[in-house]
Every structure is written in structure tokens, then in C-alpha cells.
Design a protein that fits this description.
By secondary structure, the chain is α+β, with helices and mostly antiparallel strands. It has helices at 58-65, 75-84, 109-121, 127-144, 148-161, 175-180, 183-193, 209-220, 273-285, 290-298, 329-346, 350-367, 371-384, 389-392, 394-399, 403-413, 427-434; strands at 16-20, 26-31, 37-44, 88-93, 98-105, 199-205, 246-250, 256-265, 305-311, 316-325, 420-425, 440-444. The model is unreliable at 1-6 (pLDDT under 50).
Length: 449
């Protein structure tokens, strides 16, 4: 056993059975007895990374419209039917994929699956709903731009990846693109990106294999789209022409600065992710983390500071998030990067390592206790091609993380002089503080519309 490792019991998944529909859709069913409820989750490689050029936000826009009417049912009829059956329905896109999820009593599973089939195979994209969706989405983006924290989140993605990379924009896109969307854009995106061989369907609940197989085949067996095969091809890295800068979004008369410090990291499924999750917990993942101790407890620079690794199909990132008074912006950056350097150079203490692994291992079962959360976990396993032991042996893999592995990951990604900055605040005041720290590029808030 490696130094610092901890023995933990394997986590068990419910019995799984898998099959394909006649159209090629992969289906995984997890039988979970005890509660007469079921969740159906369909994921397809149609996330914001597949947004066409100058149509940022189209994936999320299209996913949202799926539930706003089919050839046989108006949006109101869909909502009424789901409510009558005691169910819940949601559609949305994330960075890599779009998801449609419905849950409700097991006895109504065939009816719920029939609705799923209609939404996926027969979306109508009614012009009235398209107009309403455009207005809602543009208003939501405008509302987010009033929140400096939301602005900082948009800015760090652009700063890290570049505006021309598929990961360089937020899922909801931009107001000019959204306002230009047409019904034809949504129809075209649906035809180009949604297909059974680029999708995974997961059913979780107290169900029987033969009944699920029959219901899925009846609702989705006729789904065929040979033009869509598997995940999209995405560039693994940002443009090499991008320089390391601080992207400063000018928000006049602000008395606080939102601070994001980011670095590119690994893709989904990288074995480093277990050590990275422990590292993240130690650095800024919990209230007792190093960032919180140094920034909030020791110096009172902010109420909060955190760090997180995010991994996607073609890459990932590490982002440190915090905020402070305008006059202490440089200090909080230097303190955060000092903690990064200390963890990279010295590694974790034995107490930090043990506490982080105990926390993560103890939290893990709670993350999968509902049908919805289990369906989400299984769908990612199947979509990204991860082995089942990514979940069943998660606690063991976390428990086996050694101090040497933390240092190895830290030395690859915790390199202060390679971090990219995104700041939101009053530019004239901040430029004086950032002088000599990093090249700074000032952009108006309208750049992130």
C-alpha cells in the first residue's frame, strides 16, 4: 500500500443490463428497488462545444425548445401530461452534451418514454415558442451580465481557451447570436447533432428488463440518423497564438473585484483526476482549505475562495475563484498564487491528505443516492466510455491517492507563472495595482454580451 493510502469499501451499483435499439441507441438500465419511481435520462453529443460559428448558445437554445412542442403535442399539453402522471421533465445543454430527463412513477414509465420519443424524434419548434425562447435567453444573459461573479465566469473561459475554441464561450452563448437565431437554425442543429449512435439512454428505478426494452423500442426504436456518429472532433488545446494575460472587464465604479485565476488541465477520464480531486479539496474545495485559511481566516481579504478542476471531452481547466475590495486585488492574487506554489513545492501534510480523502469518500455515496443523480453518473460513464469501476471503485481510488501523486499533479498544473487571469472591476483602479504583475488587456462589458 502506498504511503498515505486508506482502505475503503467498494461502492456497489445496482444490477445493470444493457441493449441497443434497432436504430442503434445504447440503453443502460439500473434496477433499483424499494421506491416505485423511475428516471429516464437521454444524453447526446450536442453540447455548446458543437455550437456553429457565430451561433454561440444554439445547442442550449435547441435543447430547451425540445419540450416546447412536438408534431402531436403543444407545450402546454406536454406539461399537463407530465404533471398528471406525477413526473418532472427537463432539457438543457452542457459543455459537451445535451440532456433530456424525465422522472415519475414506475407505472407510468411507458407513457413517459413515449413523451421522450416525441421530444427527440418529432420536435416541432413552433415559431411562437422560438420567439419566446429567444427573448427569455437574451434577457437571462443580460441579467447575468449585471452580476460581476457571472461576468468573471464568462471571462475566464474566454481567457483560458480563446474566443475561437469550442470551450471558449459559455453554454448560453451571447446576446447578438441569440437574437439572430431562427427556427431554421434550431431545426438544422437538431438534424445535424441528434442521433441514436451519438446518444445514450439510461433508465434507473424499480423496473423489469423486458418491460423497459419493449417500452424503449416502442418509443425510440424508429430513431435513425446515420449522419451522426459518436462524439464530435474537438481541438484539444487553445490556440498557441494566445498570450498569457489578465483579461480585465471594466465595470465602472465597482468597489470590489471578482478574481479568477485559471490554468488548462486534463480531459474527462484521465487517471490523474482522482489525485486532482484530492488536491482540489486541499487547495480550495472545502471551508478548511488552504485558500480559505490564507485568504479569509488569516488576512480577512474575502468571505470566500475556492478552486475546482473541470474536465471535458477534449480538455479541462483548473480555476481559482475569489473576490475582494478593489484596493486589495493585487494582494489577494499574490496570496492565492503563494498557496498554489507552496502546495506544488511542498505537497500536502499527512493530516490534510487524510482529511481530504475521508471527506471525499464519505460524501460520495450521498452524491448517488437519488435516481436522478445515479442516472446522471451512469450516463456519463457510458457517454465518455469510462469503465464501471470509475464509480464502483471511486472510494478505493481516492483512498489510494498518495502524497507523491498529489505533488506530481500539482507540478503539472499548479504553475503560478502560467496562470491566466480574469478580473471584473473598475479598470483605472485595477490597472495601477496590476502594473508589473502580468500583461493586462482591458475590455468593456459589452465584449461578453
Amino acid at each position: 500500500m502506498k504511503r498515505g493510502s486508506v482502505r475503503l469499501r467498494e461502492f456497489s451499483l445496482p444490477p445493470l443490463f444493457e441493449f441497443q435499439t434497432s436504430g442503434g441507441l445504447r440503453v443502460a438500465v439500473a434496477r433499483r428497488t424499494g421506491i416505485p419511481l423511475a428516471t429516464v435520462r437521454l444524453c447526446t453529443w450536442a453540447g455548446s462545444a458543437t455550437d456553429p460559428p457565430r451561433k454561440r448558445g444554439l445547442a442550449d437554445f435547441t435543447a430547451g425548445l425540445l419540450r416546447r412542442g412536438t408534431r402531436r403535442m403543444r407545450a402546454e399539453q406536454i406539461d399537463d401530461a407530465i404533471e398528471f402522471w406525477g413526473g418532472n421533465l427537463g432539457t438543457a445543454a452542457s459543455t459537451d452534451y445535451a440532456a433530456l430527463q424525465v422522472s415519475g412513477p414506475v407505472e407510468h414509465l411507458p407513457k413517459l418514454l413515449e413523451v421522450v420519443g416525441q421530444l427527440v424524434l418529432e420536435p416541432a419548434f413552433p415559431p411562437r415558442e422560438v420567439r419566446a425562447a429567444k427573448a427569455r435567453l437574451a434577457a437571462q444573459i443580460a441579467n447575468d451580465l449585471d452580476d460581476p461573479a457571472q461576468v468573471a465566469g464568462r471571462a475566464i473561459e474566454r481567457a483560458l481557451w480563446g474566443d475561437d475554441h469550442p470551450y471558449g464561450h459559455t453554454v448560453d452563448g451571447s446576446i447578438p447570436d441569440v437574437e439572430a437565431f431562427t427556427r431554421g437554425d434550431a431545426v438544422g442543429f437538431h438534424q445535424a447533432r441528434f442521433g441514436p449512435r451519438a446518444s445514450v439512454l439510461v433508465v434507473v428505478g424499480g423496473v423489469l428488463e423486458r418491460s423497459v426494452r419493449a417500452a424503449v423500442e416502442a418509443s425510440l426504436g424508429r430513431w435513425k440518423n446515420a449522419s451522426v456518429e459518436g462524439p464530435p472532433r474537438l481541438p484539444a488545446r487553445r490556440s498557441p497564438a494566445l498570450e498569457r494575460v489578465a483579461l480585465l472587464i471594466h465595470k465602472p465604479r465597482q468597489t470590489q473585484t471578482q478574481v479568477r485565476l485559471g490554468a488548462l488541465a486534463f480531459a474527462k477520464g484521465d487517471p490523474e483526476s482522482f489525485a486532482a480531486e484530492v488536491l482540489e479539496t486541499i487547495l480550495g474545495g472545502v471551508f478548511t482549505s488552504r485558500l480559505m485559511q490564507a485568504i479569509r481566516v488569516d488576512r480577512g481579504l474575502s468571505y470566500g475562495a475556492s478552486s475546482s478542476f473541470d474536465s471535458y471531452l477534449a480538455g479541462g481547466s483548473l480555476v481559482i475563484s475569489t473576490f475582494t475590495k478593489t484596493e486589495s486585488t493585487r494582494e489577494i492574487i499574490e496570496v492565492a498564487l503563494d498557496q498554489v506554489a507552496k502546495l506544488r513545492d511542498g505537497g500536502p501534510t499527512a493530516e490534510e491528505l487524510s482529511a481530504a480523502k475521508t471527506y471525499l469518500a464519505g460524501l460520495f455515496p450521498l452524491r448517488l443516492e437519488t435516481n436522478d443523480s445515479l442516472a446522471a453518473a451512469i450516463s456519463e460513464l457510458k457517454l465518455y466510455g469510462l469503465p464501471t469501476d470509475w464509480v464502483t471503485q471511486y472510494r478505493q481510488k481516492i483512498g489510494a491517492v498518495a502524497s507523491e501523486q498529489i505533488v506530481e499533479v500539482a507540478q503539472k498544473y499548479l504553475i503560478p507563472e502560467r496562470f491566466t487571469y480574469a478580473l471584473v472591476g473598475d479598470a483605472p483602479s485595477l490597472l495601477r495595482q496590476l502594473r508589473g504583475l502580468v500583461p493586462t488587456r482591458v475590455r468593456p462589458l459589452s465584449d461578453l454580451r
